[in-house]
TrEMBL record:
Residues 1-21 form the signal peptide. Keywords: Hydrolase, Signal. This is Glycoside hydrolase family 88 protein. It comes from the Bacteria. It comes from Reichenbachiella carrageenanivorans. Coiled coil: none annotated. The keyword Transmembrane helix does not apply. GO terms for molecular function: hydrolase activity. Pfam families: Glyco_hydro_88.
Length: 370
């Protein structure tokens, strides 16, 4: 097994080494982003991860894709991507997905708010606002304990911090009503107090992993922490940089960024188990894309040092691009899960494309794109 791991690492190093020296050009960033976006839209109703059915259009998997697609739509030369997303909203009457309190089913709200910002049609956000108001006045009081009844009525798994809090921050931003901000802060802090390991500066995926080990290391799932890191950026984008709330998230973001920089592999990606590079040599592009997104955003917004974090962005982005095939499919996306697992060149998922598009949007700016 050890020899096999070494052979895999050597193969990946040889592959990635051929692209690491390439300069990043804004036009090429746009080109590969469009390629990935177009492929994903064409294959939107495909099945992935061994599933028998395609994901529902309002499922979190697609919601995460829309988060990145909105960023690409802002860069594209026409409105066809906006129109494609708008058609989904119209077909579904601008409703969130089926579960009232579950964070995953709120993800699509991020797309609705961004479409509202472009078109000014209040029908686009009316159902989301109504549902969030109901939750405000009927707040879940369940325990964060994973075994407690209805425990996912609150954000007791780290993925949730990407899915729901940015929508609360968006509603606060567009309405000016602090009730959305106050709720988001209260629940985000509760989740962080519960899942954040201060020694490692990383989040456990959920309570089940706090006492587990994987090959003698703590289990910190790459995509799980990627959800959090990207979620922090998406929240801060909605807040006044001078506010105490922004400064809370910025401190957390910088703490994670410093640790994540240490954990990037020589090949440019992050291992599926962040502390277990030796045991997970295969690239994983969804979590890695979120880290590149976060680093590039930090440099672009003057909160991370370019000399320190710029090389990580360059190495990481070139690695991610190398895993996009000729048709535009992003490979090495770990299937749906909650812990480190397997990824391969033929494995993809819609949320991986969303993460890639988010990363590209900031890499484009970093390298001079207008």
């Amino acid at each position: 097994m050890k020899i096999l791991r070494l052979l895999m690492i050597a193969a990946i190093l040889a592959h990635v080494g051929s692209v690491q020296a390439q300069d990043i050009k804004p036009a090429e960033v746009k080109e590969v982003m469009q390629k990935v976006a177009d492929w994903q839209i064409i294959h939107f109703k495909d099945t992935y991860s061994g599933r028998e059915r395609a994901h529902h259009p309002l499922d979190w998997t697609n919601g995460a894709f829309y988060v990145g697609l909105v960023k690409w739509a802002e860069m594209a030369d026409d409105d066809r991507y906006y129109n494609w997303m708008k058609n989904i909203g119209k077909e579904k009457d601008w409703e969130l997905y089926k579960r009232m309190y579950h964070a995953d089913d709120h993800t699509v709200g991020q797309m609705y708010v961004n479409l509202y910002r472009k078109y000014g049609d209040e029908e686009m956000i009316k159902p989301t606002t109504k549902q969030f108001d109901f939750m405000l006045y009927h707040q879940a009081t369940t325990s964060m304990d994973w075994k407690s009844p209805f425990h996912q009525s609150r954000w007791n798994w780290c993925d949730a911090l990407f899915m729901s809090p940015p929508v609360w921050a968006q509603l606060y931003n567009i309405t000016g009503d602090e009730k959305y901000l106050d709720f988001m802060m209260k629940e985000f802090k509760a989740t962080t107090d519960f899942l954040f390991d201060k020694k490692e500066s990383l989040y456990y995926r959920d309570q089940r992993y706090m006492t587990q080990e994987d090959n003698g290391t703590k289990v910190f799932w790459s995509r799980g922490n990627g959800w959090v890191f990207a979620g922090l950026v998406n929240i801060m984008n909605e807040l006044d940089p001078e506010s105490k709330e922004y400064k809370y998230f910025l401190k957390l973001y910088k703490t994670m960024a410093e640790r994540l920089l240490e954990l990037q592999t020589p090949q440019g990606h992050w291992a599926m188990s962040l502390l277990g590079q030796e045991f997970y040599p295969t690239p994983e592009t969804s979590g890695s894309s979120f880290y590149i997104y976060g680093f590039a955003w930090g440099i672009n917004n003057g909160v991370l040092d370019k000399a320190t974090y710029g090389p990580a962005v360059e190495k990481g982005w070139n690695a991610m691009v190398s895993y996009v095939n000729e048709e535009g499919m992003l490979g090495y996306v770990q299937p749906i899960g909650a812990a480190p697992g397997n990824a391969s060149p033929d494995k993809t998922e819609v949320y991986g494309a969303g993460a890639f598009l988010s990363a590209g949007s900031e890499v484009f700016k970093l390298y001079g794109g207008k």
